[in-house]
Design goal:
The strands form three sheets. Strands 3-2-1-4-5-6-9 form a seven-stranded parallel sheet, sandwiched between helices. Strands 7-11 form a two-stranded parallel sheet. The chain has a two-stranded antiparallel ribbon with strand order 8-10. Helix 1 crosses helix 6, helix 3 (about 75-95) packs parallel to helix 4 and helix 7 (about 195-205) runs parallel beside helix 9. It has a single domain (about 5-250), classed as NAD(P)-binding Rossmann-like Domain (Rossmann fold, 3-Layer(aba) Sandwich). The chain has nine helices and eleven strands. The radius of gyration is 18 Å and the shape is globular. The termini are far apart. It is of the alpha/beta class.
């Protein structure tokens, strides 16, 4: 079994993958910027900041695999995705660790600033000299639910998403950790491609709440989303549907 560091180990993906790695028998370190993050009892917490590089070398020391899941889609994106990945990749190379980077389907063809940063980070990984694998996934259910949780959602005419359960992606990452470095892996998409109307209708039916949809033109990066460049319709690897995920988080009544 391997010694595995998970950056962003207290985030949405990190919280899913850490217990699975432990169950598979790996020794797991959970890296966080917080000094005392809540981690599973069998895991070890380490403090480091990918943006500045502070503590990263110490966190990576003696690890066989580094799952780089730290991300920040809204704040200090370039510092987190590009500079942070550079710090993690250099540390992984120094100890000969397999670097597994978690990316997003469509980053190579999309103009959205967050996707462009993720694509730049992929280039950092590939050029780092470390042994590496990159897994691109479609949008997590949690992320889409957050987008649709407000009163209004702006949609282009043909906007679609391919939601995937974070647990499905976490299970795939455990397989990658156990294997040899493979470079760019097959995309990991959710089991269904849904229009925004279908996503909202299901949310309204299951949870009783959904945003008002406001039409906007398909220009700039919104046009890339409208064209479906974030989709992987030929790679429907996940098993949990949007409606099933919503039903699992719906409050119990009666």
């Amino acid at each position: 079994m391997a010694s595995v560091l998970v950056t962003g180990g207290t985030g949405t993906l990190g919280r899913a993958v850490v217990p699975l790695l432990l169950d598979a028998g790996h020794r797991v370190r959970v890296m966080s910027r917080r000094s005392r993050p809540a981690v599973p009892e069998r895991a070890t917490a380490v403090q480091a900041d990918v943006r500045t590089g502070t503590g990263v070398e110490r966190a990576v020391a003696d690890c066989d695999v580094v799952v780089h899941a730290a991300t920040s889609p809204r704040r200090r994106v370039k510092q987190t995705e590009v500079d942070g990945t550079r710090h993690v990749a250099a540390a992984a190379r120094a100890v000969g660790a397999h670097l597994v980077y978690v990316s997003i389907v469509g980053v190579d063809v999309h103009r959205f600033f967050y996707y462009r940063a993720k694509y730049a980070a992929e280039h950092v990984v590939a050029g780092s000299g470390a042994a590496w694998s990159v897994l691109r996934a479609t949008q997590f259910h949690d992320f889409l639910d957050g987008l649709l949780g407000g009163p209004v959602f702006f949609r282009t005419p043909h906007l679609r998403f391919q939601p995937v359960h974070v647990q499905d992606v976490a299970r795939r990452l455990v397989e990658v950790v156990a294997g040899e470095p493979q470079g760019l892996l097959r995309p990991f998409g959710g089991p269904e491609v849904l229009t925004v109307d279908e996503l909202v209708a299901a949310r309204r039916e299951v949870l009783g709440a959904a945003p008002r949809l406001v039409p906007v033109p398909a220009v700039g990066f919104a046009g890339d989303f409208d064209a479906g460049r974030q989709l992987a319709p030929d790679d429907r690897c996940g098993t949990t549907t949007w409606r099933e995920w919503l039903a699992a988080r719906a409050p119990i009544t009666g």
